[in-house]
Design brief:
By secondary structure, the chain is α/β, with parallel strands linked by helices. It folds into 3 domains: 1-29, no CATH class; 33-80; 116-253, Nucleotidyltransferase, domain 5. The protein is 42% helix and 13% strand. It contains 10 helices and 5 strands. A 5-stranded mixed β-sheet has the order 3-2-1-4-5, with helices on both faces. Strand 1 (116-125) and strand 2 form a beta hairpin.
Length: 254
Amino acid sequence: MVEREGPLSLRRQCQLLGLNRGAVYYEPVEIGAYELELMSLIDHQYLRTPFYGSRRMTAWLQSQGHAVNRKRVQRLMQRMGLEVIYQRPRSSRPAPGHRIYPYLLRGLSIERVHQVWAADITYIPMAQGFLYLVVVMDWVSRCVLAWRLSNLLEADFCVEALEEALGKGRPEIFNTDQGSQFTDDGFTSVLRAHGVAISMDGRGRFADNIFVERLWRSLKYEEVVCCESFIGDGGWSPGVGLQGQASNRHKLRG
C-alpha cells in the first residue's frame, strides 16, 4: 500500500492513508525462547485449571520458580487467546464498528446434519513457537469440515476454512463467538452471500459453543500435550487429530 520508491514521500503517503508513520518502519520483534517456555507452561496449566485467571496463573508460575509479574502473564494469555472459563460480562469483544449478530440457538432443537455449523479458534504450542488453529464443525455429526493453521490471529485464515467448508455443503445457521475474526465483514459477508443465518454467542457464554470447546480440550491434551515431543517433526497431523477426536466424541455420545 505504501511505496518506498514512489513520487510521494512516505510522510505524505501516510497522511493520505491516515497511517501512523511509525507503523511503516516497525519490524516485529522475534519471540524469545523464555517467552515460548512461559507460554507452554501457561498452556499446560490452563488445560488442568481453565478457571485460573492472570492472578492465579502468575502465582502458579512464581511457585514454579519463574520471576514474572501479572502484566506479563496477562499479555501472554491474551496473545494465546486464553480466557478464564466462567460466566462474566464482556468476555469476548469484537473490533470497534463490527456488527454483532444475535444468538439463534437458544431453545432450538438441533437434529439434522448441516442444520448448524460452528467455528472457533485455539492456540497450539509447537516445538519452535506456536500457531493458531481454527475449525469449522457440524453441530450434529461433530464432523470437522475444515481447518486452518496460522501464525497470525487475523480473519484471513478463518475465511479460508469457511470457504473450504462451504464447498462441502451449506448450513442453515452458523454459530461463533464475538471475536474480531468472526465479526469481520470479510467473514460474515461470505456467510451472507450463501444465505446462511449468522449466530453469535452471548458475552461470557463459553458454553454456547460447548461442542467445539470440548474438542479443543481433548485435542490439545490427548493429541498435543501428551505427544508434544513429536510436534514439529512430522509426527502429528492436525487433520487426523481433529477428525479422530470429533469422531470419538460422536461415537461416545451415540
